Amino acid sequence: xxxxxxxxxxxxxxxxxxxxxxxxxxxxxxxxxxxxxxxxxxxxxxxxxxxxxxxxxxxxxxxxxxxxxxxxxxxxxxxxxxxxxxxxxxxxxxxxxxxxxxxxxxxxxxxxxxxxxxxxxxxxxxxxxxxxxxxxxxxxxxxxxxxxxxxxxxxxxxxxxxxxxxxxxxxxxxxxxxxxxxxxxxxxxxxxxxxxxxxxxxxxxxxxxxxxxxxxxxxxxxxxxxxxxxxxxxxxxxxxxxxxxxxxxxxxxxxxxxxxxxxxxxxxxxxxxxxxxxxxxxxxxxxxxxxxxxxxxxxxxxxxxxxxxxx
Length: 311
Hints:
single chain
């Protein structure tokens, strides 16, 4: 099929390249006489859509790969990840010495990116804090956040604030799931996502969850950490209409099998809104929740800006 005019062909190419919104193309097609919209016999511009080459990718998003990495002994740092994925590369600290981690952090800070280190032991954290005095180390989460400005302790929204902001909720079934929840919270803080916290509201005391529901229902996404039989995410999923990321924890007696029983229970849940990450993987649960919340925050921001522009 040929496009009916050179101007429409050009607009079509611009939409494919991502330089024009598809709404512009739809409006242009709707403005055509009805007989030209779908006719294969219409006047040809000489540009057949079946033969159109795909547009070159934008260099600012996925090009210039050689400038989006930093090579240091022991690591090749992916500095382009933030432009591609929205957030920078996260440093897995276990198995890396403090000097290597410091060099990776330096490369990120030099590019204006904040750093997050997970699974970092206290000894290495102490060395890194000496080098990056504005950083914040959470010994429970075993995470280090580093920025060019002072990194503060995680703060949580109260019920009133939660009613007015898009945010993520972090929930633990028991107090011993707290370390995993701390990793969730530190990840969300690094991503700039507001959050609330609900601790020790597992299924053995169902009235605790019922009491938390009025505030919990205000969240746009929820992360639930639970060990033992791992039942809480499914129960929460029965009350809420938002995505729930379940984290099985290695809390429990022998038949818990280091979190495996909780993992299998969560994977077999009949609550449709529950997705499951790896055992004790607070970072992954927090990151996924942060992506969901961040998309909503950006959409809200763009919507408010469009209203202001229209006024």
